[in-house]
Structure formats: C-alpha cells, structure tokens
Amino acid sequence: MTAEQLASIHAACFTSPRPWTMQEFNDLLANSANFIVTTPSGFALGRIADPEVELLTIAVSPDARHKGAGFALMTMFLESAKKRGAEEAFLEVAENNLAARALYEKCGFASAGLRKDYYQGKSGDKISALVLKRAL
C-alpha cells in the first residue's frame, strides 16, 4: 500500500485528531523502528521500542467496518510485533471512541492510565485519552 493510499484511508476514518498526510506516512515508514501491516481494507502502523510496541494508528475503510477487518488487522499487528521481539503492546485511544475501545477490549487490551485532555475535538473541546496495554 502506498503512502497516498494510506493517507486516503486515514482521511476517510479521522477528522479529529486530523488525518495524517502522505508525507507524514512516508516519514513514518522511513523509520526502521516502525512497521505496518495491511489488508485491502486497511492498515495498522506501529513502532517497536524494545520490549514494547506502540500502535500509532489503525484505519479501516468505512465500507469494511463491522465485518471483522479491524480485529484481523489487530491480530496481524500483534503477531508481527511479537515476531519483532515485542513483549507488551500499548496504545492511546480517545475516551469517546467507543468502537475502537470495543475492538481493543476484544483484542485483550486493558486500562493502564489516562492522559487528561490529550486530544482536541473539532469544536475545540478537550478529549482525554485512555492508555491501554496487553502482554504479547
């Protein structure tokens, strides 16, 4: 999947926080600590920082949602991270993103902390981020 395709899917999924640009994806993919798993309907991008992996973003095309695509991507992502030596995975998710939170819970993630007012919503409101983690 090209950086242009990644940016296009990301833009279809995110408005707040803003979607990432093609250049940002190119920059992230140029870093050897970062890796990506893809399917035709989406991708998951992460960073290895031994012994952890951080999920930087996951995006599933709107027409593929609620069909298991997110779970499949997360499974691929966690397996790939484990093969790269990660022992624990963590991520941040907006407190009000109930769909993503349900996916992460299904994937075995549990609460590890809170980042108060971490995100800024479209109308300028502050949204806290939940920090979630799980062992690999």
Structure overview:
The chain is of the alpha+beta class. It contains four helices and six strands. The chain has helices at 3-13, 22-30, 69-83, 98-106; strands spanning 34-39, 42-49, 52-60, 88-94, 110-120, 126-135. β3 (52-60), α3 and β4 form a beta-alpha-beta unit. α1 packs across α2 (22-30). The radius of gyration is 14 Å and the shape is globular. The two termini are 26 Å apart.
Name its key features.
136 residues; alpha+beta; six-stranded mixed beta sheet
In short:
With 136 residues, this protein is α+β, with helices and mostly antiparallel strands.
* Oligomer description: single chain
Percent helix, as a range, is 25-40%
Taken from the alpha-carbon principal axes, the silhouette is globular
Structural category is alpha+beta
How many strand units?
6
Distance between the termini: 26 Å
Low-confidence stretches: none
The biggest beta sheet reads: 6 strands, mixed
Structural Rg: 14 Å
Query: On the 0-100 scale, what is the average pLDDT?
Result: 94
In which order are the strands of the major sheet placed? 1-2-3-4-6-5
Number of helices: 4
